Amino acid sequence: MQMEKFSYDNGIVKKFAIATALWGLVGMIAGLWVALQFYLPQTSLNFPGTTFGRLRPIHTNAVIFAFVGNSMFMGVYYSLQRLCKARMFSDALSKLHFWGWQSIIVLAAASLFFGYTTGKEYAELEWPIDILITLIWVVFGINMFGTIIKRRESHLYVAIWFYIATWITVAMLHIVNSAELPFSWLKSYSWYAGVQDALVQWWYGHNAVAFFLTTPILGLMYYFLPKAANRPVYSYRLSIIHFWALIFIYIWAGPHHLLYTALPDWAQSLGTVFSVMLIAPSWGGMLNGLFTLRGAWDKVREDPVLKFFVVAITCYGMSTFEGPMLSLKNVNAIAHYTDWIIAHVHIGGLGWNGFMAFGILYWLFPKMWNTSLYSKKLATNHFWLGTIGIVIYAIPMYWAGFTQADMWKQFTDEGQIKFQFLETVTSIIPMYITRSLGGALYIAGAVMMVYNLYKTAAKGSFIANEDAEAPALEKINPAKEYWHRVIERKPVMMLVLSLIIVAIGGLLELIPTFLVKENIPTIASVQPYTPLELQGRDIYIREGCYTCHSQMIRPFRDEVARYGEYSKAGEFVYDHPFQWGSKRTGPDLARLGGKYPDSWHYNHLIEPSVMSPGSVMPRYPWLYENDLDTSITPAKIRAMQTLGVPYAKGYDAVANRDLMTQANGIRINLKVDKITTPANKEIIALIAYLQRLGKDIKLEKQRVTTASNQ
Amino acid sequence: MYNLFKKSLVHKLALCFALLITSVSVSAQQAPSPAQPETVWSNPLAISMVLIIFVLLIVIILMGNVVLGTAEWHFKKQKDNGNFLKAVTILLMLGLPSIVSAQDAAATTAAAPLNIGGLSGTTFFMLLAVIAVELVVILVMALFVRSFIAKEKTKVAAVTTETKEEKTFQAFWDKFNSFRPITEESKIDLGHNYDGIRELNNRLPAWWLYGFYGCILFAAIYLWRYHVSHSAPSSREEYTMAMQTGEEQKQAYLAKAANNIDENTVAMISDKDQLDAGKAIFLQVCSACHGKEGQGGVGPNLTDDYWLHGGSIKDIFKTIKYGVVEKGMKSWKDDYSPKQIALLASYIRTLKGTNPPNPKEKQGDLFTESAAPAKDSSAVVKDSAAVKEVKASK
Q1: How far is A560 from chain B (nearest CA, A)?
Q2: pLDDT score recorded for residue B218
Q3: For burial by CB atoms within 10 Å, which of A28, B120, B131, B147 has the most?
Q4: pLDDT at B11
Q5: Predicted ipTM of the assembly
Q6: Which of A141-145, A412-416, B178-182 has the highest mean pLDDT?
Q7: Is the CB of B202 inside 8 Å of chain A's CB atoms?
């Protein structure tokens, strides 16, 4: 048989590896910074870009798309070449992918810093970056499929199944969820509104976890774990079953982020049951990983790489069991909006994603620099520091979650809510302090790793092109082959099957919610926002208020007593995008309108602790200096009209007149309370929006009462 | 032998399923209105018992595998020794309890639909009986496993250096996960080689597989209960029930506690300690708008003789309780008890005439003690041109 000589491209792997380490540190430090703001509000520096609402999306995006994203590409580019016995399809595309992705990250960080955000969690990036992501993702796809097509291996290994499913599903999620209508070069409105936007968003959000943080990393596990342990994969059968079951079931589970909300009950139930069914397929991956180590546990005691993998896979198992439990309504009623969820995602993020990335880096550097690790001891210390860091991070957050949920739900014997919201926050401050210590330990470990890897690279010599040889792929046509082996020989079939499998769940949940009218009963009194309120809403989104405040009152006795009538689906039909939020560091704002006078909001936003002593909310001094940009009002109104919001024809031309009248009204209200401010400041628009929140349904009640009186 | 056991397993599964379905349908019949699902399924005891039954069933299935495995291996040894008769006896003994138990359970369910009512004695004892039967089966199986392992252990005890516990646990763990010995690995190696990675074709761990089936069963029952039989409450129904219970608890407490103050019965409190409690609440929440000394700020001055909504203790109580929402005074009745609001109102009354620094201008009507409760007039502000603008803009 003729052996073909070729080489593997290690240069691109090195680039992604360095980016992984670098962005990892950046993302984690941003995380530590936002953690500090929970007990030291002054660390927001009273500067827009470093205030929690903007810094938190920078943290999540950096960690997900920069740190884990680069680690995924690093692992894929290394393993795919070797599993296909071929160099990457095109070095130019590899480079384009790398630099394209890094520029996306830089643009993302800059745009979030300056407040350009769509206001949809984990999809905050604005439309030009969304388009760039799509293009670069296609580049990655072409490069990956090109390599697969020119492979010298007849069948595709399980790792590649996961890469393929990842690629196609992320493409689908990103395109559907990013459907938005631009009204300026950097801003757009979500195509969907209210309940539908929420469903699409969490279908995306949940599956970003599934197909960006889970499936590609499982693929990496299938390559790097057996390589590092030098053991065969435990069960091929299990690989097949858990792979197909995982991608089929995962896609349905998104609505578990919306339990007890205004989302129709049937969709909520689908979210719950598919989450429960997800336990086994997820654990299939964990078992195949851990059981692969059978007969190699003595190595685990020695090798820091395997140590990282074992804890990573264990964390994966824990969070994929916890996830379904959190999807049960009675558990979710407690956990949702609290720090329990923060603990849950950090078990996955720090444990599974972080430790997998660390393990792979420690394994790759000595291999690619043809040397041994600079210090095994330092790596082991990193492992222990990281593990302790995770524990010290997670336990206080679980505790904080339980404590706060318990306090929220308590009533006095006389039937009043027992604790003011602020009391429930101040009582968990010690937990916030402890959590940031855990995070600091974890970062210290990561710094040690960067040093260790740097020293390793310094003492070795980098093999940019690793020579390899393999026989050319012969056309084989075995008479009888196991059914799944047939699919493994046909990458395009694999791609199409994956797409069909993942499309089913999404279509069956999204289409009825969009088409069936009964899902979102209309409320006659719900009216579009006035131009000033719309402008204020965009400021609310820009400052990331949704990262701490929900706008969704669940039908619970305590929430209705604390915030008012529970939220109805029909109230959100003009909300492009929806702003339900997912965490209550501050109270719910769905019915804030009319609760306090304008002057209260004015004083509160400039110095929250004046109006609510002990508050950890940051200050927003710039809202009092910035003039409201009214030149964009007509464009905003036109965009909303295109999206189906019923403003009168030609309203865009006169919108600013109404805007000024309303702003003047607020100015006068403030003047009565001895506050003098011009009407054209951003704060006026924000106050207008806050005073509108949840008011329409009160008008509905009056309307109904008058109607029945007549 | 294996088939026999399998059969009884299938029976049991079917039985359990039938049990779930019958109780669901029965409860559905009894609950014509979904708003009051007074059914077996709304009873936490019943749900937890069925859950226990289900978990035990999984344990039985798992243990069944272990027993079968150890038995097969045990009898192979026995047969090798030519002790065939003994093997058959044990085989029969093994099969017996599961058949018997299946029949037991069948008898109890057959009787079930005749008289079931909520979580009546019958239901309870039926569920209890199933649990008991399952426990007995587990116990019997455990005894079998123990006897098999114990016999083998005495044989190998001389040659092994491992401790008993390690050995037992290891054996259990291997069986539990359907492990093949590592030495036999070559038999299940598929011959795949991807960059040096080989693949084995181990069996799926039984507990994993049955766990998966269990989750799917859970999903089916869940959807059935919430969306077909409506025996589980929707979010809105849950809310109505919670409000009802909350209201009942509150009424029960108030009836006993003589705390039932309202705007008609409230009277001035002058006890110093009690007023301090009122002051504490004032400083915590009221001072943000009305100033620490009641001098006013965002909200009106509380120390002068002019009141927008009346200055009697009853008026103040009413203003705090219901709020004046259109002017930004929220209702506090969900935050504080009537007693607390009375304390607060009394404290506010004591502020009159304290003349704190930086008072807000007078607003509203002059209130004198002797006058009848002031009418709840709209704002009559004398000295502010701004307010006229407010009216103009509205």
Answers
A1: 10
A2: 95
A3: A28
A4: 54
A5: 0.91
A6: A141-145
A7: yes
Q: Could you say which architecture CATH assigns to the domain A3-462+482-511?
A: Up-down Bundle (1.20)
Place of tokens 């999903």: B219
Cα A189 to Cα A120, A483, A646: the distances in Å are: 11, 47, 16
Report the pLDDT averaged over residues A312-329. Answer: 96
DSSP symbols for B291-326 = -TTS--SSSPPSSSSEESS--SHHHHHHHHHH-BGG
Residue A426 touches chain B, beta carbons under 8 Å: no
pLDDT of amino acid B266: 83
Do B298 and A597 meet the contact criterion of CB atoms below 8 Å apart?
yes
Please state the CATH superfamily assignment of the domain spanning residues A531-709 in this structure.
Answer: Cytochrome c-like domain (1.10.760.10)
- Residue pLDDT, tens place only, B13-47: 555 455 444 444 434 333 334 344 445 556 667 77
A283 touches chain B (CB under 8 A): yes
Which of B199, B289, B335 has the CB atom closest to A236's CB atom? B199
Helices (H), A336-375: 339-346, 355-368
**Interchain CB contact of B173 with A (< 8 Å):** no
Contacts of A234 in chain B (CB under 8 A): 200, 202
pTM of the complete model: 0.78
Q: Which of A276, A251, A265 is nearest to A331 (CA)?
A: A276
pLDDT of residue B186: 86
Query: Hey, which residues 132-161 in chain A have their CB within 8 Å of chain B?
Result: 153, 155, 157
Q: Which residues in chain A have Cβ-Cβ distances shorter than 8 Å to B223?
A: 269, 273
For residue A407, give the 3-state DSSP assignment. Answer: helix
- CA B385, distance to chain mean position in Å, is 58
The three-state secondary structure class of A220 is helix
Are the beta carbons of A600 and B284 separated by less than 8 Å?
no
pLDDT tens digits for B226-239? 999 888 899 999 99
Question: Which residue in A79, A412, A672 is closest to B387 by CB distance?
Answer: A672
Taking contacts as CB-CB distances below 8 angstroms, the residues of chain A near B257 are: 413-414
